[in-house]
Specification:
By secondary structure, this protein is α+β, with helices and mostly antiparallel strands. The chain has three helices and ten strands; from the N terminus they run αβββαββαβββββ. Strands 4-3-2-1-5 form a five-stranded antiparallel β-sheet. The chain has a five-stranded antiparallel β-sheet with strand order 9-8-7-6-10, with no helix packed on it.
C-alpha cells in the first residue's frame, strides 16, 4: 500500500515539474535528506527517468562538466523547485525594501558561514527563498534561504 502511495506522489510531483522541462530551475530548500545542492545555482531540467529521477544539465557550469546529462537521486524529485527566473525576482520580504542598497551581514548562517559579514554587498533582489547580491568587483551571487533572514543584515 505504501509503495502505491509513493508512486502516486511521485507521479503527481513529476506532473507538476513537467512544466519546467527545458527551463532553468533552482531548489528553494534542501531535500528531505538535508542535501542543499542546487539551492544557489540553477540546473537545466531535461526530463525524468522511468524511476522518476530528474535528468538535467548544469546550466551555469556546463563548460566544466562538458555539457553532459546527469541524473539526480530520487530525493530531489519533490515540489521544492522554482524557475531560476522566479528566484531572481524580488518579492514582498523585508529585505526587498533595501534593493539597490549596500548591506552587510551581522550574524553567521545556521551552518556557520560568515560570508558577507566583513564585505558589504549591493542587494539586487530578495525573495523568501533566495537573494542576489553584487560585490564591488561586479561579481553577482545567488544566495539560498539560509541567507534570507532580515534580522541577519543591516544597511552598510
Amino acid at each position: 500500500m505504501k509503495s502505491e502511495t509513493m508512486k502516486k506522489t511521485m507521479k503527481k510531483t513529476i506532473k507538476r515539474l513537467n512544466k519546467y522541462i527545458g527551463k532553468e530551475i533552482i531548489r528553494t530548500k534542501p531535500t528531505c535528506e538535508g542535501d542543499s545542492s542546487y539551492t544557489s545555482h540553477a540546473i537545466l531540467l531535461l526530463g525524468f527517468t522511468a524511476e522518476g529521477k530528474i535528468r538535467y544539465r548544469e546550466s551555469t557550469l556546463s563548460w566544466l562538466s562538458g555539457n553532459k546529462e546527469k541524473i539526480l537521486p530520487t530525493s530531489f524529485t519533490d515540489m521544492n523547485w522554482i524557475t531560476y527566473k522566479k528566484a531572481l525576482r524580488s518579492g514582498g520580504t523585508n529585505l526587498s525594501k533595501w534593493k539597490g542598497k549596500k548591506i552587510r551581514r551581522i550574524n553567521p548562517t545556521a551552518m556557520g558561514s560568515k560570508s558577507y559579514i566583513n564585505e558589504p554587498v549591493t542587494l539586487l533582489s530578495a525573495s523568501k527563498s533566495h537573494m542576489v547580491v553584487k560585490r564591488d568587483d561586479g561579481f553577482e551571487s545567488v544566495l539560498d534561504q539560509s541567507y534570507t533572514k532580515f534580522e541577519d543584515w543591516i544597511i552598510a
